[in-house]
Amino acid sequence: DIQMTQSPSTLSASVGDRVTITCRASQSINSWLAWYQQKPGKAPKLLIYKASTLESGVPSRFSGSGSGTDFTLTISNLQPDDFATYYCQEYHRHSQTFGQGTKLEIK
Amino acid sequence: QVQLVESGGGLVQPGGSLRLSCATSGFTFNDYYMGWIRQPPGKGLEWVSYISDTSSYTSYADSVTGRFTISRDSAKNSLYLQMNSLRAEDSAVYYCARRGYYDSSGYYTHWGQGTLVTVSS
């Protein structure tokens, strides 16, 4: 099975900052990677799919990049609404795996 | 708009069974793969299972293979998860989710609100 490792586990930042979250796959997944945002008590929300395609309605300050095994989610000009937990998910083959999550906290 | 509403969660003893349901509306159910994802309290997301649009293909996480069965009913626009031989580590919020339009779209565009399953004596 493919393992997904996210880093960091926790990230402290301020409104207006630019932050980057990394996700590494244990083997190549081409560009079959999605990113989600989850707020406490709520279902996850899809942000990005196929590594870099922004889901409809998601602000352009969110961007994704990478292919193969290394991927990044970048959030520019952090807004108060962006403080949440972020997960990556691979969908390369018939099984799917989520990263362990990155909690983005207000500094 | 797309709606996914889970039901069927609750408290069950170890070794017991539970059937989760997910009623859908707002889209053509037969056109989409569907899946279940769970989240233990205070922990991360874990993919559980998915089923193809025609029910011809299913896939399961190793942790539930042989104990859980996913199914769907196109007449009722509903998705199901039959959970048998439940263990304490199966305790989680279970989300029903719709995948992207194409078969290769293994990401989840729409999610339900979740239903809590607690396995305890």
In short:
Chain A has no helices and eleven strands. With 121 residues, chain B is mainly beta. Chain B starts with a strand and ends with a strand.
Description of the structure:
- The complex is a heterodimer of chains A (107) and B (121).
- Chain A is 0% helix and 50% strand.
- Chain A is mostly beta strands and 107 residues long.
- Chain A is globular, with a radius of gyration of 13 Å.
- Chain A starts with a strand and ends with a strand.
- Chain B has 121 residues and is mainly β.
- Chain B has no helices and eleven strands.
- The radius of gyration of chain B is 13 Å and the shape is globular.
- The chains are: A mainly beta (107), B mainly beta (121).
- Chains A and B meet through strand 4, strand 5 and strand 10 of A and strand 5 and strand 10 of B.
Radius of gyration of chain A: 13 Å
**Strand residue percentage of chain A:** over 45%
Instruction: Estimate percent helicity of chain A.
Output: under 10%
The largest inter-chain interface, given as chain pair and residues per side, is: A-B, 23 and 22 residues
**Helix segment count of chain B?**
0
Distance N to C terminus of chain B: 40 Å
- Tertiary shape of chain A: globular
Overall pLDDT metric of chain B: 96
Beta-strand content bin of chain B: over 45%
- Helical content of chain B stands at under 10%
Low-confidence stretches of chain B: none
H/E series of chain B, N to C? Answer: EEEEEEEEEEE
Query: How would you characterize the largest beta sheet of chain B?
Result: 7 strands, mixed
Overall, the morphology of chain B is globular
| Low-confidence parts of chain A | none
Q: What is the terminal separation of chain A in angstroms? A: 36 Å
